[in-house]
Amino acid sequence: MSGHDSKYFTTTKKGEIHELKEELNSQYKDKKKDAVKKVIAAMTVGKDVSMLFTDVVNCMQTENLELKKLVYLYLINYAKSQPDLAILAVNTFVKDSQDPNPLIRALAVRTMGCIRVDKITEYLCDPLQRCLKDDDPYVRKTAAICVAKLHDINAELVEDRGFLEILKDLISDSNPMVVANAVAALAEIQEGTTKIIFEITNHTLFKLLAALNECTEWGQVFILDALSRYKAKDVRDAENIVERVTPRLQHANCAVVLSAVKVILQQMELITSTDVVRNLCKKMAPPLVTLISAEPEIQYVALRNINLIVFFCKYNDPIYVKMEKLEIMIKLASDRNIDQVLLEFKEYATEVDVDFVRKAVRAIGRCAIKLERAAERCISVLLELIKLKVNYVVQEAIVVIKDIFRRYPNTYESIIATLCENLDNLDEPEAKASMIWIIGEYAERIDNADELLEGFLETFPEETAQVQLQLLTATVKLFLKKPTEGPQQMIQVVLNNATQETDNPDLRDRAYIYWRLLSTDPEAAKDVVLAEKPTINDDSNMLEPSLLDELLSNIATLASVYHKPPDSFVSRVRATVQRDDDEEYAAESLDPESSSAPVSEITTSVAAPGGVPGQPAAVPDILGDLMGLDGSADQQPMTRSLPVLLSASAGQGLQISGKLVRRNGQVVYSLMFENSSQIPLDGFMIQFNKNTFGLAAAAPLQVPPLVPGRSESVVLPMVMYQNVAPGPPNSLLQVAVKNNQQPVWYFNDKISIEALFGEDGKMERQHFLETWKTIPDSHEFIKELPSVCVNSVESAIQKLQATNLFFIARRSQKESRQELLYLSAKVPPNIVFLVELATVVGTAGVKCAVKTVSPEMAPLLFDALEALLST
Amino acid sequence: MPVAASAIYFLNLRGDVLINRLYRDDVGGNMVDAFRTHIMQTKDLGTCPVRQIGGCSFLYMRISNVYIVIVVSSNANAACALKFVVEAVALFKSYFGGAFDEDAIRNNFVLIYELLDEIMDFGYPQNLSPEILKLYITQEGVRSPFSKPIDTRPPANATLQVTGAVGWRREGLVYKKNEVFLDIVESVNLLMSQKGTILRCDVTGKILMKCFLSGMPDLKLGLNDKIGLEKEAQVKARPAKSGKTIELDDVTFHQCVNLTRFNSEKTVSFVPPDGEFELMKYRITEGINLPFRVFPSIKELGRTRMEVNVKVKSLFGSKMFALGVVVKVPVPKQTAKASFQVTSGRAKYNASVDCLLWKIRKFPGQAELTMSAEVELISTMVERKSWTRPPIQMEFQVPMFTASGLRVRFLKVWEKSGYSTVEWVRYITRAGSYEIRC
Fold first, then answer.
1. CATH classification of the domain holding B340
2. Where does this protein have coiled-coil stretches (chain A) (predicted)?
3. C-alpha to C-alpha distance for A258 and A220, rounded to whole angstroms
């Protein structure tokens, strides 16, 4: 069936709007409907038809579903610009949400969620509540998504109305599609906040796995994505999940396949049996290969994700697919298959597409750099290509050969002669510069090096800066290697040219340096200019292990296509996280009882991803498996005693762990930096945000430059009351660390108050009693620590004494076998805590009573006591 | 995050918006301008289907003369997004009767808006099965505005079917004659070097099914694949029948197939959608029977002449025929004319594709045909670059032949009313990219 809607686009008359208005108010239904269609058509082509708002909304109350949908569409587009008029629609929405027809009920809720006008949102709640419990699954599944929409507009409202709870209940819904949408909505809400909203428990896991079998392909994607965030408890749990997910690899929908792969990779980290892992790799490989026969766009996404498969380019592949395949072939090249790969590259190098040809030539060079034993074969292929005399191939080949020379110095000079034959054809700066570099570097072996260089020098002023710089250096090298008359004249000319007739500061400076060097101490010049150069390395496996980890958990998403971590291109995520922190901050101050709990959650959730030791090793080597090799990833056991503050995956390979402690009467920040990135890091600096105790660094941070793989422990002395944050106290310590190579990292730590107790906190018994009495009872706080168990009073006292919680007195009650301990502590300058602990030795449960003049500090003390007594 | 899209745009080749739909608030309505200026108007178009501009990512696809662009600002599921576009286009095609282009979109914009509202909610793809959507999203209203205004209401149980476990088949279908048609369509991909060594060879096959069955039938399909047969032999405790078995590298199934059951019992069982659909896709790389071998020899005689000899040998059974065989031999751009001698078929020089085209309407099995041609080139003043020699390509269709050797062993239909069905099976092998380097 095909419509004839194009006629609605044809109106371009002047009085159009007026005419439309009339038609919209027509009493004939068909005329009305046509008019609405015209309005939508005008909206589509970008005309402003917002002035018709009232007239369109008037058409809303209709029996005709099609017309209703069109009006709703109009509302979604224009409600924001006419918020006051949008209220007109509310009545109809509410009425529609109770319509006997489930399609209309769902439509009303769906549309209301899309209208982002505050006033409407208020009216949305009641219908939404009803629809979440509708008899019809179609309505329920629409309502589930609507909760996510509402959360995006007004998160508080969602929490207040208890929609999250209802949503969680929907996970147990009998209809798989409702389950899938509920999961999607919960996952989305979880993404925007640090609070734990959606946690997969044993029960939900079972439900999800059951729904996976029955829901639509898209629903399967939602569920699999949610599962990939689930951390299995043990090996059996993981194996169970993998077993249930594996059949999804056979699905025709590529998104399902990739998400299934993601889940399996995640769970595989836990599975220890190599047989199982190998088996899984075998199962995952063929479906991935099959993705390559899908539409080219999907192929591209798959290729970016896989990067693992052996195959060859087709003549008619789109260029982006070809490039990606080339990249993968370089990665796969090994001593065993290099002959075949080279043959293939050579074939590509004779194709028509210039860009692709260049890339192919480069690929040969990269193979040579990567595989030492194959270098010679690569060079012979390059020489064959040079003999073809196709200009851009020759130039590209010379650039590549320069790199090979840098990788294997003094090995392949025999080919220089061939290169020199092509001197005249070079017209690209990069190729020219490369050739000149080769001549300069091997001046002593090229008999006519001076002639060759002289040829270039004739056009010196016209060359680009890149070539000029190379010419300058090469001439100096030549002069130092063959200090005869010819070169001497040449160098004079070059230096003159470079210092007087150029306005490029780089060139001029370099020329001056050479000049001075040569005139003062030619020997020193020799040492500098002809110094041994570091050999270059292959860069084809450049992804950092920590980044790779993160990307693997993001398979199928944009992150894995860009090969960047999500927060480097998604600004929204980070913004919301910060906003939520602030909200929590506010919540804490209202409710001192629970003050530090959310904060500790933050730190643990930050610590979790990096906290699993040996994680890099868990990445399975599918590549090796495909090639029939053994995937023996090296295992690096790491010992960490300090809590992790910035995980390696969040810090582009930099991991920071640390804790506030007291040492020799001073507060210090004990920090540990680990560099698991690929680059050396130096120039570390640290900053602290304003905090309750005004903690700040007393001295600059002294971290020696960190080469990749190294870790370094530092103790940073701290001072108190430097930058005090106003407002009620809390234990949040926000830290920023930067270095010269990376962006600034921000992370949160928790101030442990025990590190702040001063040595002067000891009180006389009498003094203690007096103070206890003077502080009113309203300043006494009591907390039960049900899980803490004191086994020996003496050792507990010792432990507490060690952190400057001083023991005052002890009392035993015979009938209840209760021990009562009295302690005192002081946070400088004069926040005094008087503590009474009551416990039965050997049984769990400690009752703490604290009297202090600063009541808001009590919760912090309870935390400290709990931490101290339970260790 | 499984979000697939924040907005979707349909643009024509000039960059005009044909239709757009914003699903989320996180991308501006003017983002499409960025796409126009940074991708469409530059030579980057076609270099990479996923691009990031500003804070947004653009995923796009071109279908006939329409660009479909998905805009997202979060770390969306790219695979999901692109697959959604593919499926959506299939859906639109099924509504428009096969065509999907600029005109079709303009002519059906109301319908498309309606569908876009239904198939994606807040960026999450929903049910995209045409079968079910057609139950309650119809264009009846447009076609006959006067006939039955009240009847636009969908059947009462439509919503249950949309969300049901069998979300692809509607209930209460009745056919007088119950028939199933199976088409096994294979395409052979080959890349052969000059010397005749096989660089790459694989078969991608699909089983297309046309179902005209009443009620809610359960179907079970048996193939001669190795794993399935072995499993069956185990279950029935008797040795597997001798005969050719094949090993499937990988199989993917339509969403109607019970994957868990396939995994445990290795049987393909399903409740089919009504009408035509693709039941499964498979890929085979081992033990492929090539239908043709090509022996080229191309000699450049001096600057202005070339001699081309191509021998093609058919390797399938002598009782079969290949149809529509075309051999494309590339020649340099400066070809002036060519003279041919062929043992069968017709050959000519086609200047628009720079190829010698040799067409054989009916190519018998176990036969050997040759073409020899003499090509004259124009001598140009410019020094001739060495000619890059693209590969020889072949097109063909071989009915009743499968390059993989796949055979359907049985197709069982079970329905509670117990009707009998007629099953039809056809095989055909086509050339995928069948290339021989010369």
1. 2.60.40.1170
2. none
3. 11
